[in-house]
Write a structure and sequence with these properties.
Elements (H helix, E strand, L loop, with lengths): L7 H16 L3 H9 L6 H13 L3 H14 L4 H13 L3 H14 L5 E3 L8 E3 H14 L3 H12 L9 H10 L18 H6 L50 E5 L18 E7 L4 E6 L2 E6 L3 E3 L31 H4 L7 H4 L1 E4 L2 E4 L2 E6 L3 E6 L5 H12 L7 E5 L6 E3 L3 H9 L5 E7 L2 E4 L18 E7 L4 E6 L2 E6 L3 E3 H9 L2
Parallel strand pairs: 10-14
Antiparallel strand pairs: 1-2, 3-4, 3-7, 4-5, 5-6, 8-9, 10-11, 12-13, 12-14, 15-16, 15-19, 16-17, 17-18
Length: 502
């Protein structure tokens, strides 16, 4: 096969043969199948690297993982496996860099489930940080190792996973601990695709069929049959039912974009897949926006049982005339006049016998933008409670502002008077609000231990972007963005009060 490319069918067949040999623990035979594939994908290169690592062929395993990463630079598990290979080959600084790269590609998620990609394994962030700490400890950077393990404790997914606690005890004694390795699991081809490679006999064996027509002398493939009436053609379902382009997928993990081409999505969102690239990135549409997200963050949606198909035809429009207005009801223009009536009347519509409030749509600009439907005229505390619930953040730490029509500048909402002024400027039941966390001041120096951290010095002012959990915050300082311990800072207003002696 040298000098020419393999067909996709041959590639999948050899891939499946290699997996079958690996299941029988025939590692050399499996390696022969995988290395015989021309133009291997990132998954095939990963499988070769895992088998080389199992056979203690460390230099060749490193090269295989190099190729896997070159073909898919977002594959965190490939960085993790190459880090293990480098560590076992006593290249500790390079292993540390790979473990940190694997942590960055976890993107703040507790784990990544690779089952959809064909790898029966879930890589946990606490496992990655465990090996980050081991690499630090091996080169005698005990403080950095301790910080990495403390961060790993915040990502633990199961109480029974006590390897992080044991490693932390060893670091406090300045002792090395065991390298965490993955079980021998390989990327597998999809069973549906493998099943389609099997030869199928669509004709089957010849059968003798008797004719039901008397004295039929036909000797072809089938006897003459009585003619059945042609079925009545059914009207085609109108294309308007296909309102959304692309296949629906559910988002499995939160994804924060790093550039303008990527799209921010949250776990549980439903997106529509437009295109899947060879680099394992998918083009999706969500909330009328289109961008890139990792394909392994998505799960295809299956139709629910009992789901009804669209009706075969669209009913004709009603032929009856509209009912007359009830007695005593005035013209619509006299009932609702936003230019002459107070805000309370402009936010109501007629419903049967009485007037009911029309909900207002509040667009909240935070680190991301959300839309909330609220009752108009809410107080400052009520609106703050609704927004904090939507953002999953404590309301006491949020600051709200709106853009005044008169000045055109952002005006902080600090009391009920400002709230009434804001509601008075609402038009068309639409309101835009800017939301942020307060600024804090650093009480101590904080050094960066991993790339995701935010370093600062005592007295630095930090703009808080979000609360990661009860112990960590995300913020910006001097143009840098990262996470830092909440105990290292205090709210600026509280520090000013202490300095004033009040």
């Amino acid at each position: 096969m040298a000098g020419r490319s393999m067909s996709l069918t041959d590639t999948i067949r050899q891939w499946d043969e290699g997996i079958s040999a690996a299941d029988r623990q025939e590692w050399v035979t499996a390696l022969d199948w995988f290395t015989g594939i021309l133009e291997p994908t990132s998954k095939i290169c990963y499988n070769i690297g895992c088998l080389r690592l199992l056979l203690e062929e460390l230099n060749q395993a490193e090269k295989a993982f190099d190729k896997s990463i070159c073909r898919d630079e977002h594959l965190a598990v490939a960085f993790f496996q190459r880090g293990i290979t480098l560590y076992k080959n006593e290249k500790y600084d390079e292993a540390l860099r790979d473990f940190i790269e694997a942590f960055n590609r976890m993107r703040g998620n507790q784990l990544i489930d690779y089952n959809q990609l064909g790898l029966r394994y879930k890589l946990c962030t606490c496992q990655v940080l465990h090996n980050v700490a081991l690499a630090y400890a091996t080169i005698k950077k005990w403080n950095e190792a301790e910080e990495a393990l403390k961060k790993a404790l915040t990502f633990k997914t199961e109480a029974k996973s006590n390897f992080v606690d044991q490693a932390l005890e060893a670091v406090l004694k300045q002792e090395l601990f065991q390298l965490l390795q993955l079980p021998t699991e390989l990327f597998r081809p999809k069973r549906k695709i493998v099943a389609q490679l099997e030869k199928q006999d669509f004709l089957g064996e010849a059968k003798v069929v008797a004719s039901i027509i008397d004295k039929d002398a036909f000797s072809g493939f089938a006897p003459l049959q009585p003619q059945a009436p042609e079925p009545v053609p059914q009207k085609k379902v109108p294309e308007k039912f296909k309102t959304l382009e692309g296949a629906p997928h559910r988002v499995l993990f939160n994804f924060i974009p790093n550039n303008e081409w990527e799209l921010e999505v949250q776990s549980g969102n439903i997106v529509f897949l437009l295109k899947k690239g060879q680099d394992n990135w998918a083009t999706v549409t969500f909330n009328n926006e289109t961008g890139l997200v990792p394909y392994n963050y998505l799960e295809p949606l299956k139709p629910e049982k009992g789901e009804r198909s669209p009706p075969p035809d669209i009913p004709a429009p009603p032929t009856t005339t509209a009912p007359e207005k009830p007695a005593g009801v005035k013209d619509e223009n006299s009932l609702i006049n936003t230019s002459q009536r107070p805000i309370e009347s402009s936010k109501t519509i007629l419903s049967k016998d009485h007037l009911v409030p029309v909900p207002s749509i509040v667009k909240v600009h935070f680190k991301y933008t959300v839309a909330i439907r609220v009752k108009p005229g809410l107080s400052h505390n009520e609106l703050l409670a609704v927004i904090s619930k939507k953002l999953h953040l404590p309301d006491k730490r949020l600051e709200l502002s709106y853009k005044s029509r008169e000045s055109g500048e952002l005006t902080p909402i600090t009391n009920e008077t400002k709230m009434k002024n804001m509601w008075a400027e609402v038009g068309n039941q639409r309101l835009t609000i800017w939301c942020k966390f307060p600024e804090v001041v650093a009480l101590f120096d904080y050094e960066v231990s991993v790339p995701a951290d935010l370093g600062f010095h005592e007295g630095d002012i930090i703009h808080v972007l979000a609360q990661v959990n009860n112990n960590w915050l995300e913020g910006q300082c001097k143009g840098n963005t990262g996470i830092f311990p909440a105990t290292f800072v205090k709210e600026l207003s509280m520090v000013e009060i202490m300095n004033s002696g009040m």
